[in-house]
Amino acid sequence: MRLTSDEALKLFEGGDLLELGKAADKIRREKFGDVTTFIIDRNINYTNICKNECKFCAFFCRKNQRGAYLLTHEEILQKVRETVEAGGTQLMIQGGLHPDLPLSYYEEMLRLIKKNFNITIHSFTATEIQHFANISGLSILETLKRLQAAGLDSLPGGGAEILVDDVRKKISPKKIMTDDWLNVMRAAHSIGMKSTATMVIGFGESLAQRLEHMKKIRDLQDETGGFRAFITWTYQPKNTVLGGEKVSAQDYMKTLSMTRIFMDNVEHIQGSWVTQGERIGQLTLAFGADDLGSIMLEENVVRAAGTSFDMSTRKMIDLIRAAGRIPAQRNTTYDVLKIFREATK
To answer: Which residues, including other chains, have CB under 8 Å from residue 306's CB and lie 6 or more apart?
Structure first.
């Protein structure tokens, strides 16, 4: 029976953490049994130059600021080559909103990658897509069609943060608002381009606002069926203008459990070891998560905010197995490529 928003909020605010975890884990087990998946990919940040200057971001630079960079296509291709050689099956290419790059820069990047490598390009946030449309004078739909024709396979869910405008205006007033993000995803889904959805918690938002975010994702999923997974991250305050404190592991786990319980139409719930560390990442497997995301051959945005955890395929397999689950490598579409039933040597 589907929870209403009022029922969910009552549960969210008053529910016991362990009881919520048990309920979320029961749903996960019924869907996936003991298998927990992960993917091998690389996060390539092609530029850190960004005109949005979000208060919660420690990664961006202004155009003429020391440390600002823009990767050439040759540098990007070298990173792709390293990814393929390491067994990677997916690229997550993301960057700042560079004020001077034309749409052709991104189209050429995609074509070169597809010409030279057999790899899935799961790239560009909704924020970037709207920026590309603005600089090219095209509609969101036409921009997505051109990128799809050049080689873009699917969209990550970045840029969502909290899909409540009151929160967004405080933390990133220059960034796209809630309806903009949802409209980019709706347009992508309309041309068969699947995506993931994300939520970043810890900006001082209320539980009701987190639930409002989840409801918007659930409603759009009812409409399009285009979201493959939902990922909850925690805001990393170090080195940011916004500052503040990290949310507790308990707060994160409770929110994660609610995403599994409330968003009954989103198949996969991903636990975050990138912001939480290995042990809390492992615990997410008892609170509704069926996937631990990527071993991430490269990551720069969270690292810029002072949080850094390293992962390898062997560590990921051992982490999942120690939680009593069966590790399995997947691809972007969540097809299982390999199950690791035997202990690693």
So the answer is: 58, 236, 238, 239
Q: For the chain, how many residues are written?
A: 345
Burial 315-335 (b: 16+ CB within 10 A, else e): ebbbbbbebebbbbbbbbeee
Q: Are strands 336-339 and 268-270 parallel, antiparallel or unpaired?
A: unpaired
Which residue in this structure is represented by tokens 């393929």? 84
Classify residue 129 as exposed, middle or buried by CB count within 10 Å of its CB (0-12, 13-18, 19+).
buried
Determine which helix (DSSP H) or strand (DSSP E) holds 259, and give its type and residue range.
helix 249-262
In words, the CATH class of domain 5-337 is: alpha beta
SS3 47: strand
DSSP line for 74-135: HHHHHHHHHHHHTT--EEEEE----SS--HHHHHHHHHHHHHH---EEB---HHHHHHHHHH
Which residue, 100, 42, 40, is CA-closest to 70? Answer: 100
pLDDT tens-digit profile, the chain (345 residues): 899 999 999 999 999 999 999 999 999 999 999 999 999 998 898 888 775 554 445 445 666 667 678 899 999 999 999 989 888 999 999 887 888 889 999 999 999 999 999 999 999 999 999 999 999 999 999 999 999 999 999 999 988 999 999 999 988 887 899 999 999 999 999 999 999 999 999 999 999 999 999 999 999 999 999 999 999 988 876 656 566 677 899 999 999 999 999 999 999 999 987 666 777 888 999 999 999 998 867 544 333 333 333 457 888 898 899 999 999 999 999 999 999 986 544
- Give the separation between CA 312 and CA 218, rounded to whole angstroms: 33
| Distance between CA atoms of residues 6 and 11, nearest Å | 9
Tokens matching residue 199: 């939520």
Round to whole Å and give the CA distance between 267 and 27: 11
**Cβ atoms of residues 82 and 297 within 8 Å:** yes
At 178 the three-state DSSP class reads: helix
